[in-house]
Write a structure and sequence with these properties.
The protein is built from 21 helices and 6 strands. By secondary structure, it is mainly alpha-helical. It has 2 domains: about 80 residues, no CATH class; about 375 residues, Glycosyltransferase, CATH 1.50.10. Strand 3 and strand 4 form a beta hairpin. This is Squalene cyclase C-terminal domain-containing protein.
Length: about 600
């Protein structure tokens, strides 16, 4: 199809300037006459009657067609000009052919009327004339704005909270303990945290808890499903425990408890202090079974000295420290005065961890930012002790899964610290070894390679042939004084006998240091080492520590049964855990006589870890 070019203004000016002057003058004359008669749609010069008569008699003929005058052939003369009027006349019913349209002259004085720029027709034409890329951009911007207004609710993690019900109501079914495979990307992210440090200065807002004073909570089982069979311990990896003492924790109740109490230095006053401590702890348990280092929120400020605000979110650690004294006194979720409180705490720990699978191994991650791996070690000890004491199948999977996470998180140096795979320190490592030992007492799986790795870590941080221990190396500092009794206790649990030179020298050094009244964390570990070893050093240390704790236990309203040591310098200990942590450690010290069967007594016959 041929393209029709629109006449350009420059072409018109050039053609007009080349016409003869006579033609332009005639055109101007016609234009001036046509301006006086605006009713005529086409400006044509009409001859007078006389001229018409003359033309009729003339042999030449004149023809007018569509407003264009054709002169006689015999005497050609310039045709009269047809100027374009300023206003458009009526539109002809028949369209003008394109070849005729191009021949119509355009008057330079013509002022074209501008169309309505705001009309809907022109707005549509503007849109049609826009470049394609601009239209595409406009459409995409509109789509993005619409999508921005659409909100999709994110998945909310449901936290199971224990509900208090009347004793006569039916027991509700609890959601099954679920184990899901952890994405490999999440595992890589966990491992990358080993090179980072946790920000422990961040304060965490705590909701105001309510006391559980007069509530009766119906027992709720924890169905574990078929996965429990996957966690059955391998018999070949464990040695058979002697039957003479029933279990390593069999001295926590009954006649055995009374005998051990008298034999190893306890008395009625220390037992009374334990009873008061358990009562104070029970009054500061939250309705969901947990404890908090911000205990003053539970009792509504009836007692002060809460833990540091930056530890407010360490709920698992606080719950474990609140629960362990009950277990140490023989209270379980199956029997005892506080069995309801123990049950609620165990349910909270089992449900508040992050359950999943890593490389096909079921794990329960109980770490938390403000408490990191301290929280996990403490909570794992509580779960494993409860299982070892009761053999309740419902506790088997969460206890074993918590041990599996410890196995997974062990660093290449054999220790543990704040995050999985992070180079170890003695303080955090001690809690993990205690958890593994508690699991071993309950016949749970403990890989020999994990224990061997922990021994290699102890070798790295020991000094004086195993009599002293540093924090991350061999250096012994006053700030990390508890590391020596921690290391010695771990050595006892990993196979060193009573006469090992490191044990003998270490016990002697602990006796020389004596009771540390400004470091209850040190006293907690030193009491266990000396009690297991026995002898004159233990007798002297015990009397001083026992009587001091009985004397310093608070008897004030609201605080009765608790302890608080404001000058404690403990690393990750009571200084940051407030009155709750101080009370927990002090109570467990007074339970040391029967909390664990003595390692080196002939009647106990407690075996070492499988290696």
């Amino acid at each position: 199809m041929s393209e029709i070019n629109e006449p350009q203004w420059s072409d018109f000016v050039e053609s007009k300037s080349k016409r003869p002057n006579s033609e332009r003058s005639n055109e101007n004359k016609v234009a001036s006459e046509s301006s006086t008669d605006k009713k005529m749609p086409v400006a044509v010069k009409v001859p007078a009657p006389k001229e018409l008569a003359a033309q009729k008699t003339s042999p030449s003929k004149t023809r007018i067609t569509a407003g264009v005058t054709t002169p006689p052939k015999v005497a050609p003369s310039p045709p009269p000009a047809v100027p374009k009027p300023r206003t458009l006349g009526p539109i002809a019913s028949s369209p003008i052919p394109p070849d005729r349209l191009a021949a119509i002259p355009i008057d330079g004085a013509f002022d074209r009327e501008e169309p309505d720029q705001n009309g809907p027709r022109n707005r549509f034409l503007y849109f049609r004339l826009m470049p394609a890329w601009l239209v595409s951009t406009f459409v995409h911007v509109v789509i993005l704005l619409v999508l921005a207004l659409i909100t999709i609710p994110s998945e909310v993690k449901t936290v199971n909270v224990l509900s208090a019900i009347g004793a006569g109501e039916d027991t509700p079914e609890m959601e099954e303990f679920q184990i899901e495979e952890i994405d490999s990307g999440d595992v890589d992210e966990i491992e990358s945290l080993a090179d980072q440090m946790v920000d422990t200065e961040q304060e965490i807002e705590m909701p105001e808890p309510t006391a559980m004073e007069a509530l009766e909570v119906a027992p709720v089982p924890i169905p574990m499903g078929d996965l429990a069979s996957e966690m059955a311990p391998v018999a070949s990896s464990l040695k058979t425990l002697a039957s003479g003492t029933s279990s390593p924790m069999g001295g926590r109740s009954g006649d055995t408890r009374e005998k051990l109490l008298k034999k190893y230095g306890g008395n009625a006053a220390s037992e009374s202090a334990v009873g008061d401590a358990l009562k104070w702890l029970s009054l500061h348990q939250m309705a969901n079974g947990a404890w908090t280092f911000q205990h003053h929120l539970v009792c509504r400020n009836r007692c002060g000295d809460p833990g540091e605000a930056k530890r407010a979110g360490a709920i698992n650690a606080a719950t474990a420290l609140g629960l362990l004294p009950f277990l140490g006194a023989g209270q379980t979720h199956m029997e005892g005065e506080y069995k309801e409180r123990v049950r609620n705490a165990l349910l909270f720990l089992a449900q508040n961890g992050k359950a999943g699978k890593i490389q096909g191994m079921p794990v329960l991650d109980l770490t938390e930012g403000p408490g990191n791996f301290y929280s996990h070690g403490l909570a794992s000890i509580a779960l494993c002790e409860a299982y070892a004491m009761t053999k309740d199948p419902a506790l088997m999977l969460p206890a074993q899964a918590s041990l599996n996470f410890i196995v997974y998180a062990q660093a290449s140096d054999g220790g543990w610290r704040y995050f999985p795979k992070m180079a170890g320190d003695t303080s955090v490592t001690g809690w993990q070894i205690m958890a593994l030992k508690s699991g071993h007492m309950g016949y749970l799986q403990v890989p020999p390679a994990t224990i061997q790795g922990s021994i290699e870590f102890l070798d790295k941080v020991q000094g004086s042939n195993g009599a002293t221990y540093g924090y991350m190396d061999r250096r012994v500092t006053e700030a990390h004084l508890p590391c020596t009794p921690i290391g010695l206790l771990c050595r006892m649990y990993t196979g060193w006998d009573k006469n090992h030179p490191g044990i003998v020298e270490g016990v002697k050094r602990l006796g020389n240091v004596g009771v540390q009244k400004n470091d209850i964390y040190y006293d907690y570990y030193a009491a266990q080492v000396l009690r297991h070893h026995g002898g004159a050093v233990w007798d002297k240390f015990n009397v001083e520590l026992r009587d001091w704790l009985v004397e310093t236990q608070s008897q004030k309203d609201g605080e009765k049964g608790s302890w608080y040591f404001p000058n404690s310098r403990s690393h990750r200990g009571p200084l940051e855990g407030g009155r709750l942590a101080s009370t927990s450690f002090a109570c467990m010290i007074l339970e040391v006589y029967y909390r664990h069967m003595p390692l080196y007594a002939e009647a106990a016959a407690l075996d070492d870890f499988p290696l």
